[in-house]
Amino acid sequence: MIDIVKKSDCSGCYSCVNICPKECINIEVDDEGFGYPVINNEECKKCNLCEKACPVINDPKAEKIETIAYACRNKNEDIRKRSSSGGVFTLLCEEVIKKGGIVFGAAFDENYEVKHIGAETIGECEKLRGSKYVQSKIGNTYKQAKDFLNNGRLVLFSGTQCQIKGLKLFLNKSYDNLITSEIICHGVPSPKIFKLYKENLKNKYNSNIKDIRFRDKALGWNKFSYVTEFENNKIYSKTLHEDIYMKGFLHDLYLRPSCYECKAKNFTSNSDISLADYWGIEKKHSEFDDDKGISLVLVNTEKGKEIFEKISCGMEVIKSDIGYAISNNPCIVRPVKYNKKREKFFKEVEGKNLEHSIMKYTKTTLGKRVKDKIQSSLGKLRER
Known about the structure:
Blueprint: H1 15-19, E1 25-29, E2 35-39, H2 49-52, E3 64-74, H3 77-81, H4 88-98, E4 102-108, E5 114-119, H5 122-125, H6 141-150, E6 155-160, H7 161-171, E7 178-183, H8 191-205, E8 209-216, E9 225-230, E10 235-239, H9 244-250, E11 273-277, H10 281-284, E12 295-301, H11 302-311, E13 315-320, H12 322-328, H13 342-349, H14 354-362, H15 366-383
Parallel strand pairs: 4-6, 6-7, 7-11
Antiparallel strand pairs: 1-2, 3-12, 3-13, 4-5, 8-9, 9-10, 11-12
Helix pairs in contact: 4-11, 9-14, 13-14
């Protein structure tokens, strides 16, 4: 029976909720805005299926090949422009939908909360495109995916590393008609903080939200912007370094506790494909970089290799060095470091202005600025 003693022992993947035969596990939200399983002990029959499906405790059976890294960009410039990086996810969706399959991924609902949904058309898949820097609620989509798989439908399931790991443990068997695509994750921010942030913007612009884009490329891929469009046609747009929500996210200030000790890193999810931004592409493959977005695609299984070959006609591809890719995106193999200011931030944010609290706890000290300057200078010297 699942018993969460430390908050860091739960990734919020919903695997235990989906697998419980008595449906006696519910998710309750804590003061930080993260959901955790609560068991109705009177209904629980102590089958321990919830423990066996937990990605913090267990690893799925490995079906790996030697991982191969590729730098990729969709040949369709419009799709790449509307994608977070190189537009590879859309190609995966198109291949699956073409074969009568269904795609599961994270989407905004009518209140701009992030939830996993199933998409059966290319139009519906557009909701799944693009980064959402807040934890997605899996809900019962693991169960839905299993029903489709058992009925012979092709299923593509996209999610963070822990969500894919949770799915694999929930299913507890291999399906030839399942393709998994994990998103390399920096960590998932608190839905509560994101809600406060949205309310602040709505009040400031005196309007409801019409659209949110975390990774707008109007100023380029490397300097992407957070954009909110409002029903009164006003637009808020700031770069990743200017926007207050992104600032707190990149300082790891309000991530889920389990993110600092993530047990789903380093390919333990056994996902067929891993997708990420190919940061550092300009130094490794300068001729390939145009600041419009390049995907890093890691092919991890034979099935991943097969689907990658099928969609390769729709993109430009360069085989790359996995070691270099990991050095520029270490979240592939290890979690971010815990921010020691996190606890104070959550205690303070309740009674104070969100923007003030984030600014206060992300402020860089003079000593840190000097240290960063020295390290930057040393790095440039090493490159010469």
